[in-house]
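Here is the promised in-class demo. Please do not try to memorize the tokens; focus on the logic of going from shape to residues.
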């Protein structure tokens, strides 16, 4: 049995908090739940959890504001980002992209299956290198590109660069699978724990574009992260 990992559930709906708490506790997590954004930030600052399950529609300090504060703190302190799964009644692609671009690790639309949420929580923690069974993560290196899983830092030709949380996850996946053509569908599944039934492949395209701006000498003629026509992308380092 894995050691208990603490999850903070933030939702102003008593029923949602109760059902999510039961599901996560049944899956072996320790759960704290709060019903507003200020209480969430107080809890996070006092005792950072392994994972935050965050509703967007909160009274006072909203979910996007909390996510923005968390990612700003990550950049300033250079600490490991706290993984965040967003819960939302907003089902539009625009809302999903905003949440993911702000640094959410996953996005689940209400109503949802609590079993699926528990599975996504395990997946996000594994990808973030926080799974207790995984221990410290290795630091894979490509030709001129180094990614450190423990600090979630990236160096290009010896120089540190800043990347968003999901950009790091995507880059790490490519570096882990060199010289192999990866489809956008595969990347949605592996990096976002998603599929094109609820999140379009344009999300992958946009994140690849942003990565290229940061890791390529000439983003218009990429040499490291190449496009494989009619398939997806290939990491050539």
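The designed amino acids, position by position:
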């Amino acid at each position: 049995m894995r050691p208990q990992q603490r999850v903070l559930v933030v939702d102003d709906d008593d029923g949602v908090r109760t059902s999510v708490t039961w599901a996560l506790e049944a899956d072996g997590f320790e759960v704290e739940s709060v019903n507003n954004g200020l209480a969430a930030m107080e809890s996070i600052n006092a005792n950072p959890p392994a994972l935050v399950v965050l509703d967007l529609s909160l009274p006072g300090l909203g979910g996007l504001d909390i996510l923005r504060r968390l990612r700003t703190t990550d950049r300033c302190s250079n600490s490991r980002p706290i993984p965040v799964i967003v819960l939302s009644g907003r089902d539009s692609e625009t809302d999903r992209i905003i949440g993911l671009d702000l640094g959410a690790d996953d996005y689940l639309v209400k109503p949802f299956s609590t079993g699926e949420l528990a599975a996504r929580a395990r997946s996000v923690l594994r990808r973030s290198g926080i799974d207790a069974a995984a221990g410290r993560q290795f630091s894979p290196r490509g030709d001129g590109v180094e990614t450190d899983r423990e600090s979630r830092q990236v160096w290009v030709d010896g120089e540190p660069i800043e990347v968003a949380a999901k950009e790091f996850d995507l880059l790490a996946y490519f570096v882990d699978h060199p010289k192999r053509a990866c489809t956008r569908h595969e990347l949605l599944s592996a990096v976002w724990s998603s599929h094109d039934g609820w999140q379009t492949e344009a999300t992958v395209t946009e994140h690849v574009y942003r990565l290229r701006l940061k890791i390529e000498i000439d983003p218009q003629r990429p040499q490291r992260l190449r496009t494989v026509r009619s398939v997806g992308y290939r990491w050539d380092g």
